[in-house]
C-alpha cells in the first residue's frame, strides 16, 4: 500500500508548547538543534517556517506526515500581519499544485497542500486575544483551522470549561470559520455518534504536551511532573490530547483532505483562473484599443488630405 500524505501546520504565539505537542503527538523531536535568540535577533526576526517529515503507521496504514512549524510569532515587538508568511506559505503550496496539475506529469503530483492548521490559544486571559482573532480570520479561507487551548495543565477543569465556552462564543461573535466536524448520519452506530458528540462538545480541544516519559500508576507514560502530582498527556480526564490525535490521524483525516481539495484549493484555483482570464481580456482590450486608435489616425489623415485637395 502506498499510504497517505498529510500536512499539518502549527501556529500561534511562541512558547505555547507547539513543538512539544507535535513531539508528543508523533514522537518526533522538531527542534533538536534549535538555538535561542538574543533580544536583538528576536526583534528583527521574521516568522521562519520549517518543515519536517515523519513516517508513521497507524493501524497498519502508512502515513507520510509533514509538519510545518512556525516558530517565532510573537517574539518580535511588532506583530502586525505576523500571519502573512503563513498565508503566503499556504498559497505557495496551492500554486505549486496548480502548476503541477496543469503540467505533463499529472499522475505523480506530490501533494504538499496544508490540510490542517492547529491554532494555539493561550490559556492565560479571558478568551481570544485580538491577534488570535486576526490570525484565524486570515487563515480561515485557506486552510482547516482547528483551535486548541494550549498548556491546559495551567487551568482547573472549571476554568477550562469556562474558557472553552468563551472561545466558542467569540468564534461565533467574530464570524471566525473554524473546521466543522461533518454531520453524523442517523444510521451510524451509537458508539460512533457518541464519539462525534464528544468531539463537537470538546472544541476547542484543551491540550498538554510533554517530552518526558514518567512513571504513573505503575505505567510509563508521557507526562509532566509537578510537586503535587503527575499530569498525564494521554489521560482523557487530564486533557483532550487523545481526542485530538484520534481525530487527526484516524477519524477525520479524509474529511480534512477532502475539504482542502474541494473547498480551499478550489477557491484558490477559481481565483487563479479568473485572474488569468482577466489578463487575457485586458490584453485583447489593449490590442483592440491600439487598432482603433490607428484607424482613427488614418481617417484623420485622409480627411486632412481631402480637405487640402478641395482647397
Ligand atoms: P513553542 O515555541 O510554541 O514551540 O513552545 P515549546 O514547545 O518550545 O514550549 C515552550 C515551553 O513550554 C517549554 O519550556 C515547554 O516545556 C513548556 N510546555 C510545553 N507544553 C506544555 C504544556 O502543555 N504545559 C506546560 N505547563 N508547559 C508546556
Automatic annotation (TrEMBL):
GO CC annotation: cytoplasm
Gene3D superfamilies per the UniProt record, alphabetical: P-loop containing nucleotide triphosphate hydrolases
CDD domains on file: CDC_Septin (cd01850)
Subcellular location: Cytoplasm
UniProt keyword terms in alphabetical order: Cell cycle, Cell division, Cytoplasm, GTP-binding, Nucleotide-binding
Stretches assigned to the Septin-type G domain: 2-275
Gene Ontology molecular-function annotations: GTP binding
InterPro entries, sorted: G_SEPTIN_dom, P-loop_NTPase, Septin
Subcellular location, principal: cytoplasm
Claim: Cell wall biogenesis/degradation is one of the keywords in the record: no
An annotated GO BP: cell division
Protein's UniProt keywords contain Cell cycle: yes
Site positions for Important for dimerization: 124
PROSITE patterns for the chain: G_SEPTIN (PS51719)
Record family assignment: Belongs to the TRAFAC class TrmE-Era-EngA-EngB-Septin-like GTPase superfamily. Septin GTPase family.
Protein name: Septin 5b
Amino acid at each position: 500500500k502506498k499510504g497517505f500524505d498529510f500536512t499539518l501546520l502549527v501556529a500561534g504565539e511562541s512558547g505555547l508548547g507547539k513543538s512539544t505537542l507535535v513531539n508528543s503527538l508523533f514522537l518526533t523531536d522538531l527542534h533538536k538543534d534549535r538555538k535561542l535568540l538574543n533580544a536583538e535577533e528576536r526583534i528583527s526576526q521574521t516568522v521562519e517556517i520549517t518543515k519536517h517529515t515523519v513516517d508513521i503507521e497507524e493501524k497498519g496504514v502508512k502515513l507520510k506526515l509533514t509538519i510545518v512549524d512556525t516558530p517565532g510569532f510573537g517574539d518580535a515587538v511588532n506583530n502586525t500581519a505576523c500571519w502573512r508568511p503563513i498565508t503566503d506559505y499556504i498559497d505557495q503550496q496551492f500554486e505549486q499544485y496548480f502548476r503541477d496539475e496543469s503540467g505533463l506529469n499529472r499522475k505523480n503530483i506530490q501533494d504538499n497542500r496544508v490540510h490542517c492548521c492547529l491554532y494555539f490559544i493561550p490559556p492565560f486571559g479571558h478568551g481570544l486575544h485580538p491577534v488570535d482573532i486576526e490570525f484565524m480570520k486570515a487563515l480561515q479561507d485557506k486552510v482547516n483551522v482547528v483551535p486548541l487551548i494550549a498548556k491546559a495543565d495551567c487551568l482547573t477543569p472549571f476554568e477550562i470549561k469556562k474558557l472553552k465556552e468563551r472561545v466558542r462564543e467569540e468564534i461565533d461573535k467574530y464570524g471566525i470559520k473554524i473546521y466543522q466536524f461533518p454531520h453524523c448520519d442517523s444510521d451510524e452506530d451509537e458508539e460512533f455518534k457518541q464519539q462525534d458528540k464528544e468531539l463537537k462538545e470538546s472544541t476547542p480541544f484543551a491540550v498538554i504536551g510533554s517530552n518526558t516519559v514518567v512513571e504513573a500508576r505503575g505505567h510509563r507514560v508521557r507526562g509532566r511532573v509537578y510537586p503535587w502530582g503527575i499530569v498525564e498527556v494521554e489521560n482523557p480526564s487530564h486533557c483532550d490530547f487523545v481526542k485530538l490525535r484520534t481525530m487527526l490521524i484516524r477519524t477525520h483525516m479524509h474529511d480534512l483532505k477532502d475539504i482542502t481539495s474541494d473547498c480551499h484549493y478550489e477557491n484558490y484555483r477559481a481565483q487563479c483562473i479568473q485572474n488569468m482570464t482577466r489578463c487575457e481580456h485586458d490584453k485583447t482590450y489593449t490590442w483592440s484599443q491600439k487598432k482603433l486608435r490607428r484607424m482613427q489616425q488614418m481617417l484623420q489623415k485622409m480627411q486632412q488630405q481631402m480637405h487640402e485637395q478641395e482647397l
